[in-house]
Amino acid sequence: MGSQSVQARMAMLVVGAGLCLLVAAWPLLARRRGTRGTYSWRLSVVALFCAAGFVAAFWLPARLVKPVRPPVELPPASAIGPGTAIAVTYADGTGGMGCTAGFLVRTNAGETGVLTAGHCNKPGQASKVSMNAGSDIYPTVGTFNQTVSEGARGEDHDIGLVVLDPDKVPRTSAVTGSLPVNGVAADLRIGQQLCKFGMKTGQALCGQITDITESKVVFLAGSQCGDSGGPVYLIQDDGSVAAVGIHIRGGRPNDPNPGCSIPATFSVAELVRPWLDAWGLTLAVP
């Protein structure tokens, strides 16, 4: 609501309250002037309630009604890439969730996208994705193009592809904008150190690999709800990283699916190499 319309509304409420008070006080004014007439005390009571209503209307909207905020412009320095916090708005209008962007990729059609967890979306829906900066509302930057969300057990696949809108927002292929990605990790071994970054934990956490399957890798790094979709990577000797997977869930030794009640002590990632091949994607590197 504009400042001029707010001022006009306040003036109308003040005038209305004043007229009601004048009607309520009319008997006293009439006595002082020595005039007599028919006047019901009930009218004074009604007029007082009327004045109270105008006063309440004057104060309550300013305190209780919050205007709908339009999307704000993206800060010039912001870029979407591995580790960026994202907000997903379901295409069917039933809500959404916060997740983390994974590795930057390019499609066979020349489009740029980011991998993330499939459970961040509802299968079959072209849900919109925006950058997530807490209380700020950013315009959408992309749309889900692929979603696989089979469950949260064993080899259940969990991965999604968001195709970014052309020239909508700067992109970076580096993890958190600082660790360059030089390719996909070729050979993983039990005991190797893997790292992950998620928007909820807000920092890189690393731990040893404890299990490797055809589509998953398990490693001893903590995680929380909101880290889903974030990059899982292997740090190289030269400071660059090799892409390994997309964080999909966490667990604890005695509770493999703790939900969001407590932080997990180990993480599970969906390996990216099979999906790069299946979807005809190329990992974006500097």
From TrEMBL:
InterPro entries: Peptidase_S1_PA, Peptidase_S1_PA_chymotrypsin, TRYPSIN_HIS, TRYPSIN_SER. GO terms for biological process: proteolysis. It comes from the Bacteria. The chain crosses the membrane at residues 6-29, 41-60. Gene3D superfamilies: Trypsin-like serine proteases. Keywords: Membrane, Transmembrane, Transmembrane helix. SUPFAM superfamilies: Trypsin-like serine proteases. The keyword Transmembrane helix applies. GO terms for molecular function: serine-type endopeptidase activity. The keyword Isomerase does not apply. This is Endopeptidase. It comes from Mycobacterium bourgelatii.
